[in-house]
Amino acid sequence: MKNFKIRIEVSARHCHLSEADFKKIFGRDAELTPLKNLSQPGEFASEELIGLKTKKGEIKRIRIIGPLRKYTQIELSKTDAISLGLNPPIRMSGDLGESSGVTLLGPDGSVNKKEVVIVANRHIHANLKQAKKYGLRNGQVVRVDIKGERSLVFDNVKVKLNENYDLSMHIDTDEANACGLGRAGGFGKVIFK
Amino acid sequence: MKNFKIRIEVSARHCHLSEADFKKIFGRDAELTPLKNLSQPGEFASEELIGLKTKKGEIKRIRIIGPLRKYTQIELSKTDAISLGLNPPIRMSGDLGESSGVTLLGPDGSVNKKEVVIVANRHIHANLKQAKKYGLRNGQVVRVDIKGERSLVFDNVKVKLNENYDLSMHIDTDEANACGLGRAGGFGKVIFK
Questions:
Q1: Measured between CA atoms, how close is A30 to chain B, in angstroms?
Q2: How far is the C-alpha of A188 from the C-alpha of B170, rounded, in Å?
Q3: Which of residues 69-88 of A touch B (CB under 8 A)?
Q4: What is the DSSP letter of A28?
Q5: H helix intervals, B48-95
Q6: What residues in chain B have per-residue pLDDT under 50?
Q7: The model's pTM
Q8: What is the distance, to the nearest Å, from the Cα of residue A41 to the centroid of all Cα atoms in its chain?
Q9: What is the dihedral of CA A124, A128, A129, A131, to 10 degrees?
Q10: Which residues from chain B sit within 8 angstroms of residue A174, using beta carbons?
Q11: Which of A180, B142, B165, B175 could form an S-S bond across to A148 if both were Cys, CB 3.0 to 4.6 Å?
Q12: In this predicted model, what pLDDT tens digit does every residue of B56-92 receive, in sequence order?
């Protein structure tokens, strides 16, 4: 397997909401309004924003990523989590057992949620054709080298395959800052162990 | 030269003030009150805090690191800088040319400063005896491997030698979050190129 260049995208804090939670805080007749398509086919940033509140703090303007999902999940950077007094686990999307709780605030109400907040594990999306081309396996762990003023090599980068994905590495804003990438992202090199 | 284990310390946002700037915002008769000694001999966290203000935002509670210096320097994480609408360069301490400006707020006044804000370049402090023992040269660039849930290898880690220093690597809060270290820091391994 040969090392290869990969696009890096920076995920700012965001949330995925269940339909029930969305209706509770936006109203029974509300719907998500797509603002911008994301790189993963079918996913979009919505115009709708929510707030998060804990005993220690509040964060406003968390963007909802659509479409609505079966479960609610909030993805924060560690910096965000600390500002809310939370210590969420570093997890892959969907793995919410023993994650942190928070209150969701919307224009039409609020809802207290347990086990919804994680810090996302850095990961690579790829579809099956791309996986074959580059020799990636689902669940595989690779390293990604980022060059620049704050050069570093990310270890523990997990590969997620799905026929609907498109090749891209996702890191959060703390990781982007640590490796010198702006919100627009950049490129890195996948290194096989 | 053999790789070796090193203590990692996490620098939260902080500032160094000149005596003139300190008096302007704390009053003519004010003095720094040491709160806690830091690992680098002679340096201390003071009880005194300042605020920072820009057109875009404000950060409260920036700790002053004493003693007072010949020049004022503010060290922020990139996350902090973005919240203030600033884009400071990544620099070694003291290298302030074309750095960012900000207004310093104290209990007794405020002062507008140009070229005072940087994001600190990650670095290693060592004294001359330690440098000899481990084969470190002043200005040398090494890599540091951090193990854990968010394992990574920091590149571009600059070595700073001074007879008063004590062996330690300093990273900022974004870097700590990206490599899974808490505010209490941890340990890494210096890797020679």
A1: 31
A2: 25
A3: 77-79
A4: T
A5: 78-83
A6: none
A7: 0.95
A8: 15
A9: 40
A10: 79, 174, 177-178
A11: A180
A12: 999 999 999 999 999 999 999 999 999 999 999 999 9
Cβ-based burial of A173 (10 A; exposed 0-12, middle 13-18, buried ≥19): buried
Q: Where would I find the H helices in chain A?
A: 19-26, 78-83, 128-134, 173-178
Of A190, A180, A119, A189, which Cα lies nearest the Cα of A159? A190
**Residue A154 corresponds to which tokens in the numbers above?**
């990310």
User: Rounded to an integer, what is the distance from CA A59 to the centroid of its chain?
Assistant: 17
The β-bridge partners of B169 are: B8, B124
What is the pLDDT confidence band of residue A80, given thresholds at 50, 70 and 90?
very high
Q: Which of chain B's residues have a Cβ under 8 Å away from the Cβ of A149?
A: 90, 156
Q: Which residue has the tokens 């990969």?
A: A6
Contact B62, B50 (CB under 8 A): yes
CB of A159 within 8 A of CB of A124?
A: yes
The CA distance from B184 to B79, in Å, is: 19
Query: Which B positions 6-65 lie with beta carbon below 8 A of chain A?
Result: none
Q: Does B173 touch chain A (CB under 8 A)?
A: yes
Tokens standing for residue B152 = 């990574």
Q: Is A191 on the interface with B (CB under 8 A)?
A: no
* DSSP H or E run through B134: helix B128-134
Taking residue B21's Cβ as centre, other Cβ atoms within 10 Å add up to: 21
| Cβ contacts from A onto B, under 8 A | 55
**Residue B54 backbone dihedrals phi, psi, to 5 degrees:** -130, 180
| Three-class SS state of B174 | helix
Does A193 contact chain B (CB < 8 Å)?
no
